[in-house]
Write a structure and sequence with these properties.
alpha/beta, seven-stranded mixed sheet, 10 helices, about 35% helix
Amino acid sequence: MATDHQPDPPVKSTYSQGHSAEVVASHSARTVSNSAAFLLPHLRPHFSLLDIGCGPGTITSGFCAYVPRGKVTGVDLGDSIIEQATSSHPAAQYPNLKFEAADILQGLKYSDDSFDVVYFHQTVLHLPDPVRAIREARRVLKPGGMLAMRETDSLSWYPELPGLKKYNERMDDMLRSNGAPGLYRARGLHAWASEAGFEREKMMVGAGTTVHSSPEERMWWGTVHINRLKGESVGGKMKSSGSVTAEGVEEMVRDFEKWIEHPDGWYAALQCEVIATK
């Protein structure tokens, strides 16, 4: 006898890097200009927007100027990062902005058809069930609303130092250890959106890049990763998982230092971008 399919029980969202100071330091450099430019031309002053995985809120708050008669809501997993985002963006300066703790894989508290835009940035690749997350985002979108996603697919370095290759491999291992897709999977964002119920004919599928090549950019970006490797958020987790030894972490740090100093040092990340209309 056939039985009705029972949905899989919800899993909890994960963020393998956590929200330590060395991680949030780089997240705070993200803005609507460098992280959501593909979406900005489609925003309207009255729109309501939900930013899932908002972190310290620097992108989230940037949306406020584009929807001055609307509202912007940022959600993230931890109370501490939400408190930081809220304290950094006072209501007097951002009257149409609020931050709340939420886990999209556990289900959002918002009613169906609540938002004109739902935005993911560097969030889906950390989630153990991307399709469930996208399906929940679709639920809270209004008919005609837009889901916008921008996720890193791959990281490229020049010169191709062995410690930097190892860093890419171990970062991918760390992401996948929590059941998340990891690197090299964002190229399928549009396929996940289709599986979650969006129609392919109503999607804009593209890509962008993040590039760091000037001496100032290399100093900043290389130091970001060195600090992560020396801290518990990345290096500590890699060592405790057994994916790399202390000597392996030291090799990565040394090659980041070499990359910073190399006159032709270059970094690029492929950013897959999708706007899907409900």
